[in-house]
Fold this sequence. Notes:
Elements lengths: L8 H7 L10 E4 L5 E4 L2 E2 L3 E7 L7 E7 L1 H4 L3 E2 L2 E2 L5 E5 L6 H8 L1 H8 L2 E5 L13 H5 L4 H14 L8 E6 L1 H12 L6 E5 L14 E7 L24 H11 L7 E3 L6 E5 L9 E6 L10 H10 L7
Amino acid sequence: MRRIALVALAVTLALAGCTDKTGGKGGEAGKGGRPATVDGVPTSEGTHKQKLDVGTVGHREYLLHVPSKVAGGKWKDGEPADKPALVIALHGGLANMSKMRDLTGFDKLSDEHGFLVAYPDGVMTTWNAGDCCGAAKVGNVDDVGFLGKLIDRLTGAGLADPRRVYVTGFSNGAGMAYRMACEKPGKVAAIGVVEGALVTACDPGRPVSAMIFHGTADGSVPFNGGGNRDFNDKRPFPPVSDAVNFWRRLAGLPQPRERVKALSDDTRCESTGKGGQGVAVTFCRIDGGRHQWPREASSMLWSFFAAHPRSGT
C-alpha cells in the first residue's frame, strides 16, 4: 500500500476500451476430450491474457495460468474431472498483473501442484481496498465486484473448485485480499496477506482462514502501525496485530502459538490451529523484513491454502 498521488479523472480514462467478446461454452475440441475454450476461457497449458466484461465502460484484464496437470488431465463433459483450486494473486500499488506473476513465482507452483492461478490487473496500478489506494479508491472502483465476477466466471464454467478459491496479495493487493474476505466470505476459502493492512469496514458474518506475513522493518506499512493510509488520508495504518486478532476472534480461535516451519531463519510463523469450522489463522513475523515479497511466501501460502478448503455452504 504505497501512497499514490493520482487524480480521479484518470480512472474514467483507464476504464475506457472495448468490451470482452469471448464466446460461449464449448469451442473446438482439444486433446483428450478437453475443449479448446470453456465460456471463452482457454484451457490449453500456459498463461493466457484475458478480458472480463464487468458491466461498465470498457473491460478488466487478467492473466490465467493453466498448468499441464489440468490441461492434460482427465476431462468429462467439457470440464476437468477433478476441478482444481484457484489462486488469485493481486499486485501491489504501482505494479501490474505481469509484475505480480514474476514476483511470486506462482506459475511454477501451479505446474507442480495442479492449481489455476489468476493475476488480475487493478485500475491505474491500484486497488480499492477501502481507505487505500490512489486512483481506484478515489474513483470508488468496484474491485470487489470485479474479483467476484472473475471467481464466478472460472468456477461457473466448471474450471475451478468453488470450495477452493484463495486470494492473496502484496501491499495494496494484500489490503484488497482483506476486503474480499470481508465482503465476499462465501466465495473465498482463505486469504494470504503480505505486507498489507486491514483498512476497510469488515463484518463478514463468517470466518475465513488467513495467513499473514509482515516484516518488522516495513517502512511503507509499519509493523506496529503508523505512516499515512493514502496520499489524501493522513490517518495511520493499524498494526498488523489488529488484523491477526480480528480474524482469529471472528472464528473463536486462540492466540497463534503453534509453531509452523518456515524456510528462513528470520521468519517466525505461529498458527492458531484449526477451529471447529476448519478455519485457522497463521501469522509470520519476518525479523528485519522490509516492504517486499519474502522468498518463502509463495510456497508457504500454497501449503496453507491446500490445507484450508471452504467448509459449509
